[in-house]
């Protein structure tokens, strides 16, 4: 076998083991018995040790050296780019540290869940200190003396920097804040959804929604979790959702969001399976798929018209008179503390809060003990009301408990990318709303699959967005979309 063939054979086994690790994580969140948490942490640590050894195998360096200057095709070159980047990063992290991170973050997830349930930040603070300390140690190992935060950010958005994202977010913020103030001060406000909606019927309808967006249940499954997520790739991409007796939109749109993630994975060219190209290229691009599915498609006037009829069939008369009123209710801007339940207008303000706080945590400028006060003060300043309990504040998200520092900004970056993709998709498919009004998303999702999803990791994040859209990504399309949408709904 050639050096490339030997390298790719090694990589395929590593990718397969990584999928097994991901499946253990999925099981931990959905079906694992509570009493198994300690053993699971040891299992995760053991498997991470095996993966770390494979990812730092000295033969990878030899194979890469043998391939220097070789004439390779586009796919081969892209595979080597990913392998070289991963090998360089992983080789800098001691095996003992990698295993300890896996062990501690597996345990931390359960500690966070219990602390969140008990509304007790102090019960989680010590564990978060451990996780943060290990992530700082990891960042120091891979940063080559540069920014810790930028080093961690590369795991989620290769090529991005904290300064670059801060500049983009600074451009977003003024128009978002101004639009929010106009909406809050508007004389017309949509009516809220009131009542109770049987959870069994919510789950039944959410499966209809998943299928409407093209989710293939023969290669996935839908379960419930505390924090909705998507897991897996290739021919096994699973999703989770959650239900609330008084808020079915939480269930429906969490599902659509996770379907966007899963369909990205399922839509990648089959030839890339179990290679570095066989998964989404970055979390920002991944989030562009979940957000455009959830918002620009799922919350559009056309699609909500169809969803209104589905809800009437499931729940009978639920107090909203017609599809126009339902569209406004679905997109209602409300006072809420939870990021995952936030409307499109305010969602990014939730992300910017976390982005700023986690940079301070990683740098050491903010102590874990001071996190609740820092969170609550920033939240009050941004949203105009106080956080009432930790589960609505700094305990609401799972991310920091599992060491995902650098992940949060990709949510807003994904929104920016989704704004660009929505503009390009609607220019390319001008009659898309006609199909959406019948519950048929295939024209919209088919365009995304053809122009973005199938490429997997073939291109760099910014390049795949620019190639799909025909223009360089910027925040302008997202801001224009939000201003047009909410000005109409609130009659500004």
Secondary-structure blueprint of this entry?
Layout: H1 3-30, H2 37-55, H3 58-66, H4 74-91, H5 95-118, H6 122-142, H7 148-153, H8 162-184, H9 199-212, E1 222-224, E2 230-233, E3 236-241, H10 248-266, H11 283-297, H12 301-315, H13 323-330, H14 344-363, H15 371-383, H16 409-428, H17 432-436, H18 442-451, H19 461-469, H20 476-489
Parallel strand pairs: 1-3
Antiparallel strand pairs: 2-3
Helix pairs in contact: 1-2, 1-3, 2-5, 5-6, 8-14, 8-20, 9-10, 10-11, 11-16, 12-13, 14-15, 14-16, 16-20
Catalytic activity: Release of a C-terminal amino acid with broad specificity, except for -Pro
Keywords: Carboxypeptidase, Hydrolase, Metal-binding, Metalloprotease, Protease
GO molecular function: carboxypeptidase activity
Structural summary, described in words:
The chain is mostly helical and about 500 residues long. The protein has two domains: about 5-145, no CATH class; about 160-490, Neurolysin, domain 3 (Orthogonal Bundle). It is built from 20 helices and three strands. It has helices spanning about 5-30, 35-55, 60-65, 75-90, 95-120, 120-140, 150-155, 160-185, 200-210, 250-265, 285-295, 300-315, 325-330, 345-365, 370-385, 410-430, 430-435, 440-450, 460-470, 475-490, and strands at about 220-225, 230-235, 235-240. Strand 2 and strand 3 (about 235-240) form a beta hairpin. The chain is globular.
